[in-house]
Specification:
Strand order of the largest sheet: 3-4-2-1-5
Helix content: 40-55%
Number of helices: 16
Radius of gyration: 41 Å
Structural class: alpha+beta
Number of strands: 14
């Protein structure tokens, strides 16, 4: 009678079956159907990864699953030694074929040709063929030796890579993602049960089956059509969805998957070392991030009392955190739970400093200041038109509401814009200097302007928002106006 031994290795997440003798046809078919593969060099059956079904079969055959005694590194060393032996064997064959080719080549020493028509021609050609065959065999054997050496090196490199801290950290991230996926299925099932508690009439059930996502209500894709054709009643369809969702919540298979992932996480974290106890300031944001990583559905953290944090979710929290949808613990309790779950609070990263200069304040000037600045702009235009054939055209301020401004200030050709002004009251523009675009001045404030009715030799119209509070401009308008009048000339300014 065949006896079995089953082992599991958390390093590679594989179940191995050791049989004392050849399996009968029925047992072999069951083992193969479960996904076990025969490893002839190791003389065992190995499953590529753990599943509840494979675990059940291994327990049924062996009675229990023991810990694998051979580590991944030891197994890799054995395989590398075997491959290295194959490489040496092929290298020896390559040398033997090379020596044989060299011996056969002596028949053509010093370039001895094949004498066509001579009685020695047939033998010479046979010798030449054997020489070429030996040379080809030597080349093939040398290539095979190189290949097996490469495989041996790759096996050891792979084992070292699997135990590398960075690789292990990435494996932990993958396991956390798997844990969240499993918990998300339970969360969705809870939400589906809540939906079916509300939808009880036939009309409501038909509406849910025909208009809601099948994943959210745990329905089969063809359930609506069966109800529509009368193959099944709405009440039976509702009951079918409830049973599927209930199985997802309370079913043993998903729970076993979650427990298995948690055990693998514990193993991987133990190999990286103990998780540090968080001693920094505990905030609701930190606890919400912890709960989300563990698979909680939209967690919300509050502080009902000093030193107590309450974590809540619309559905029950993950089972390894709490059996209900709410959990209140003290600060020390949360720190211990995070450490037990292997959670490390990520360090705060410094915000990247923007290369752009800091924006100057946006100012909505008063009516008086707006008129005075508009006068200065008009005087600047008068001074700019001196000695030209065209005369300057004065402009006046424009008043509007915030709603109107927002609706007409989008795009490059919008009638309303926001500009920067320097301390001299002039608009700051981008100019070319020595093949480089630079600002014409240092901005001190931003203001709004209107380009409605824009013409040549006519300045922009300063815009005032009537339904927003005003602020004074950070420039000396009186001094600027006096300088502008002097530059434009009192006579022309009066005209």
């Amino acid at each position: 009678m065949t006896s079995f031994t089953a082992t599991y290795s958390p390093e590679d997440n594989k179940i191995r079956l050791y049989a004392s003798s050849r399996l009968d046809a029925e047992t072999y078919a069951r083992v193969k159907e479960a996904g076990f593969q025969w490893a002839p060099k190791q003389e065992l059956f190995v499953a590529p990864k753990w599943t509840p079904q494979r675990e059940d079969l291994a327990v049924e055959l062996a009675g229990e699953i023991e810990a694998e005694e051979m580590t991944l590194a030891e197994r890799a060393a054995i395989k590398a030694e075997r491959l290295d032996g194959l490489a040496h064997k092929r290298h020896a064959e390559a040398n033997a074929f090379a020596r044989r080719a060299d011996e056969l080549s002596q028949a053509f020493h010093m370039g001895q040709p094949i004498l066509v028509g001579h009685h020695s021609e047939r033998g010479a050609r046979k010798t030449q063929e054997r020489m070429h065959s030996a040379m080809s065999a030597s080349s093939d054997a040398e290539k095979a030796a190189t290949y097996w050496l490469y495989r041996a090196t790759g096996v050891e490199r792979f084992a070292n890579m699997k135990s590398d801290p960075r690789t292990r950290a990435n494996r932990i991230k993958a396991l956390l993602a798997e844990l969240r996926d499993l918990q998300r299925g339970i969360n969705t099932a809870h939400a589906a049960l809540a939906i079916w508690d509300l939808f009880t009439t036939d009309e409501q059930i038909r509406h849910a089956l025909g208009n809601m996502d099948t994943c959210k209500i745990w329905s089969n894709y063809d359930l609506y059509y069966k109800v529509d054709k009368g193959e099944i009643t709405p009440a039976d369809a509702r009951q079918s969805c409830i049973e599927r969702a209930t199985l997802a919540v309370n079913g043993p298979v998903r729970r076993r998957w979650i427990e298995h992932v948690l055990n693998r996480l514990a193993f991987e974290r133990s190999m990286l070392g103990d998780v540090p106890h968080y001693d920094g300031e505990l905030t609701p944001v930190i606890l919400q991030a912890f709960a989300r990583e563990q698979g909680a559905e939209v967690p919300k953290c509050t502080v009902p009392h000093a030193g107590v944090f309450r974590l809540e979710s619309p559905v029950p929290l993950p089972a390894h955190i709490a059996p209900e949808a709410s959990l209140a613990l003290s600060e020390d309790g949360w720190r211990d739970l995070m450490q037990a779950s292997g959670y490390t609070v990520p360090a705060r990263t410094a915000r990247r400093v923007s290369a752009k200069p800091d924006a100057v304040p946006l100012i909505n000037p008063s009516q008086e200041q707006a008129e005075q600045l508009q006068t200065i702009w008009n005087l600047h235009m008068v001074a700019a038109c001196k000695g030209k054939h065209s005369a300057a055209k004065p402009n006046s301020i424009y008043s509007t509401t915030q709603t109107t401004y927002s609706a007409n200030s989008k795009g490059d050709y919008a009638p309303f814009k926001t500009i920067e002004i320097a301390a001299d009251g002039r608009r700051v523009r981008m100019e070319w200097q020595r093949q480089e675009r630079v600002r014409s001045g240092e901005p001190v404030a931003r203001i709004r302007i209107s380009t409605i009715g824009a013409e040549f030799y006519k300045p922009d119209a300063l815009l005032v928002i009537t339904d927003k509070p005003t602020k004074p401009l950070p420039i000396d308008l009186d001094t600027l106006e006096a300088a502008a009048r002097q530059a434009a000339g009192e006579e022309e300014a009066a005209a």
